[in-house]
Predict the 3D structure of the following.
Amino acid sequence: MGLLDSFEKGLERAVNSAFAKTFRSGIQPVEIASALRREADTNAAVVSRERIITPSDYLVRLSSEDHERMLALGHALNDELFALLTAHARTQGYSFAGPLHISLEADPHVATGTVRVNSSAVESSVSWQGVIEIDGRQHTLASARTVIGRGGDADITIADAGSSRRHAEILWDGERAMLRDLGSTNGTKIDDQKIREAALAPGTSFTIGRTRLIFRVVPVSNPSAGTQREVRR
């Protein structure tokens, strides 16, 4: 079963057949789903061999008449559109540029039976940011030097009695990272080996006291002017 078939099945579960008859004219819900899927495909940007970013913010513009009909479906339509686009992104190997958001809006300039989809473009707007992950939470690295420790003056504070107030620092130039111990009492470890200074590759984990930290490089999207696609019946 294809994704659009799955969408239609879900829509059938959400509304009864009598209500669905009101959509014999004007735009059909499945056409909105198809337009969103094409928008995601068209604006997907390859930012690395293992990373494809697609827009996360979608605005669906409809005629006033079509918009009123879609609103009658309530949350069912939005839920199905969200599920469909999420499943499509997973199948294609896409990562959304941010939290997924889909909204519908009435536009007096859009003719009945027409869908216009605006999304935030990601091309030439993706940069890479170094972060430190602790217990699933990511802390952004400063552009030059980030101090880690249990002291209140550290840039990243960890509640670990086994760490020094200013335990270690990470030097980050936007492309490469270096981990340096700051003369801590218990040392800084990579693979259970104490280090004084070591290069950090993305995904490297290290230990301060009893705390495990992971260095990651993540894409950051700064949406540029939106793109627009039009679909006519």
